[in-house]
Amino acid sequence: MGFSDSQRRALTRKLAKRSVRTRTLSGTILNYVSGWHAISEANRIFGYDAWDRQTIEPRCIWSEQRFGRFACLYAAKVQITVRAGPTVITREGVGTGYCHDDRENTAHEIALKAAETDATKRALTTFGNPFGLALYDKTSPRKPPPEASAKAEIQLNSPGGTTQTFADPAAVIATIKQRIPELGTVRDVYAFWEANLETFVVLSRQASNDPVPELLELLKARGRELKAAETQDPQPETPVEAAEARQARPKERRARDKQHLRFVARHPCVICGRSPAQAHHVRFAQPRAMSMKVSDEYTVPLCNGHHDQLHQTGDERAWWARHAIDPIALAERLWQAEDKSEGADLDALIAARGRRRDAAHAAISLKTPSVKRLMSNGGVGKRTKKSNVKGDSA
Question: Among 30, 76, 158, 212, which residue's beta carbon has the most beta carbons within 10 A?
Fold first, then answer.
């Protein structure tokens, strides 16, 4: 026993034309069904509690930074499980997702979601026409004819996310020429160009005379004009830009001092207080440079275990925030304490932080019998000492 008669009829029904979407990719017209439509049809046909989706093996194919924006491509495999009575049906699909954004975390998040949605649609397509299988049937009357696709509207995107559609290439060109003088910053110029790369490709193919070289020159001229204006009259920093500037602390000088590194390593780990420690360079203290570490003045002591743990994390700022430590402030104190007499200040700070941590641990409720037994038998101290020896030996 499998699908019911009503489910079979729904799966074999022709795809409604209103459910088909169209987009342009490198001058080619593509027909597709949206992700929300596929999920909605699965809920309608299978039932909300009769099917599951599981994402398998999501991975980042590549990522890079271009013109101040982050771009990345993700691939994901999705497994669809449908329960039709006692029968369990499993299908898989693989999809990709691309995104570019001013913020790196947003670009990765959107690209991963796009890959999961694409893989979900591909897996559901194998169940029948309502999920887009009919789009692969060239004889399907529900599929938009090629002549209708050839006259698909041209989309013009703005960096803010709004989109306009035009049927006439001349109207698109006129609108672009009208928008270029309205771009307020150099970043807006680059964002407008990247948001409409596909639109420029379509214009170069559909317009009688290729307008892209002229539009590109207008964009370059606007960028040079804005760059000159910013040089003469620099704009005040926004709160976000000011915060990023304070965190990044860009400096051209990258000091190298082996004696200072040995001095830092003589201090205990700022996380757990263990010795010996290693001098860790705070990576976000200065802008990245090819094959170059940050200046030695931005180093703090970390034990082997926490040093390895930090290098394995993807977000160093978040790692330090979880430990409630400002590494740049500690590094500056160490850099200014070269006479070693002020080195005790850092030790006192670490000891005070350890006392606060111990007080917080003592404030935890001791109502659990196992915790009471450990405290009464001195098991906590013994266990801590054993773990410390193991960590030091590692």
Answer: 76
List, for residues 221-253, the tens digit of each pLDDT value.
888 888 888 776 555 555 555 555 555 444 457
Partners of 88 in beta bridges: 83
Cα distance from N-terminal residue to C-terminal residue, the chain: 58
* pTM for the structure as a whole: 0.40
Of 22, 61, 253, 257, residue with least CA distance to 146: 22
Structure confidence by residue, pLDDT tens digits, 12-55: 888 878 888 877 666 567 788 888 888 888 898 888 888 999 98
Contacts of 82 (CB under 8 A, 6+ apart): 46, 50, 51, 88, 89, 90, 91, 127
Go through the domains of the chain in sequence order and give each one's CATH number: 5-146 (3.30.390.80), 153-232 (no CATH), 258-363 (no CATH), 364-394 (no CATH)
How many other β-carbons are positioned within 10 Å of the β-carbon of residue 39? 17
Angle, helices 343-362 vs 327-336, to 10°: value is 150
